[in-house]
Automatic annotation (TrEMBL):
It comes from Jiangella alkaliphila. InterPro entries: DUF4331. This is DUF4331 domain-containing protein.
């Protein structure tokens, strides 16, 4: 998955596990940028009586770099607290939840949003904002969309924020890909062949917990500018999300609960989709989650010679001969630019998202490129400059884009003499976007446990 279970240790701590990060110029409010960080992967909708929630002991953050140094120049931090209205019941709700303050809503979460610049102490933008409940079913949450709408809160300066459960917008044939990189559309060409078949979206009925914030572009760019020219370096921002925990966790016997102690340490991070998932080797994945983007020089070698690129010619004999030759002869400077520095001006006409020479895993968004009137889920490789790897929209087919890039489709950007294998442009995992909302927070209503069949 994009980052649902990407490292051994964080897979044991789902409440702090970032699953996907999105950053895009808002299509319905093009003077703003929407940032979405999803956590708590692969939620089964029927999860009572202890439904999913954010961690009160986790500090969630979305970082923005705008100074060309791969350092956080702007950070939005989110802290949650949980209240139990009736301590004498085991139930999440004791009747239909008609509003966010309904007495029947027994276990509620509230959060504070803080904005900081550099090392300066943060400004509280809003506090005690209520989250919606999980989508339990037609009796407990009979009008879930209205509950979710009520949980979209205005921020000072024209922003919006939402924190709560949504349907997972990511789509991937997880079972096929991790079964020795089987790509269902042409699995008959695999080393262990089977009949070709359509892909299966593993996450069709899964939910996540979403932190979404929409803010004016001028709140994110260098010097508070509103760049209009895509060639302006100030138009480009880098984005990543982190989750941090305190160093110690102590059980308070009198209170009957755990509490954190000590300073916060980072336990999870996410920039580009699939980076830690399939680029970083297993023995270093936990280390990567604790590292800062500015230190990603340590991982450049895995981008220059990615393991998946080596596997494709082996697993699909005779299908990727040019990729096999490329693997033997050259470092993948194209992938290094796409994933670690951004593309400089002149590589793709009318586009650049270069953030400086420091290699760092971040989503890179050129805020001067307006949303497409005819969006293509293949983003830049599909001719749509408003899509991945220019930031990332919810419907961008990042699995196909990255598989094709690794297979060699993007290498001609730096070597016009190279011709990719014909199969490289056809490679896909066979899934399609599930469809999402046209307005904030853009992800669909979460699946409810009553309607969704058990797996």
């Amino acid at each position: 998955m994009s980052s649902h279970r990407e490292a051994p240790e964080i897979s044991k701590d789902p409440v702090a596990d970032s699953t996907d990060l999105y950053a895009f110029v808002s299509p319905d409010r093009p003077d703003t940028v929407t940032l979405i960080a999803n956590y708590l992967p692969a939620q089964t909708p029927a999860a009572g009586p202890n439904f999913y929630e954010f961690g009160d002991d986790v500090r969630y953050e979305i970082h923005i770099s705008n100074g060309g140094r791969a350092e956080a120049d702007v950070t939005y931090a989110f802290r949650f607290r949980t209240e139990v209205a009736n301590e004498e019941t085991f139930l999440y709700n004791t009747g239909p939840i008609a509003s966010l303050d309904a007495p029947e809503f027994n276990r509620r979460q509230f959060y504070t949003v803080t904005r900081s610049e550099g090392d300066r102490r943060g400004d509280v933008l809003a506090e005690d904002l209520p989250c919606p409940p999980c989508n339990i079913g037609p009796r407990s949450t009979p009008d879930y969309p209205s509950l979710a709408d009520a949980a979209v809160h205005d921020l000072p300066g024209g922003g919006k924020v939402f924190a709560g459960q949504r349907a997972d917008g990511f789509f991937v044939d997880l079972g096929s890909i991790f079964d020795l990189a089987t790509l269902r559309p042409f699995q008959s060409a695999h080393l262990i062949p089977m009949a070709d078949a359509d892909g299966v979206n593993t996450l069709t009925h899964s939910n996540v917990h979403t932190i979404a914030i929409q803010v004016p572009i001028t709140d994110l760019t260098r010097g508070g500018k509103r760049p209009r020219n895509a060639e302006d370096a100030a138009a480009v921002i880098g984005v990543w999300t982190t989750a941090s925990r305190q160093r110690a966790r102590i059980f308070d016997k009198d209170e009957g609960s755990y509490r954190g102690a000590g300073s916060f340490v980072q336990v999870s991070r996410l920039g580009n989709p699939l980076f830690n998932e399939v680029i970083v080797p297993m023995a270093r994945k936990d280390e990567w989650n604790a590292a800062e983007p500015e230190d990603d020089e340590d991982y450049v070698s895995y981008v220059r010679r990615p393991e998946v690129a080596k596997l494709l010619p082996v697993l699909y004999p005779g299908v990727f001969p040019r990729l096999a030759e490329l693997n033997e002869s050259a470092d993948r400077a194209d992938l290094e630019a796409i994933l670690l520095t951004g593309l400089p001006e002149g590589v793709v006409p009318g586009f650049q998202n270069f953030t400086g020479a420091t290699p760092s895993d971040m989503l890179r968004l050129n805020t001067a490129i307006t949303p497409s009137a005819d969006p293509n889920p293949l983003g830049v490789v599909g001719g749509d400059l408003a899509g991945f790897p220019n930031g990332r929209r919810v419907f961008d087919d990042v699995v196909t884009i990255e598989l094709r890039a690794i297979a060699g489709v993007t290498y001609p950007l730096i070597d016009s003499e190279f011709t990719p294998d014909g199969a490289a442009a056809a490679i896909t995992d066979g899934t399609t976007p599930p469809g999402n909302e046209d307005s904030f927070p853009y992800l669909r209503t979460p699946h409810d446990g009553f309607a969704v069949p058990a797996a």
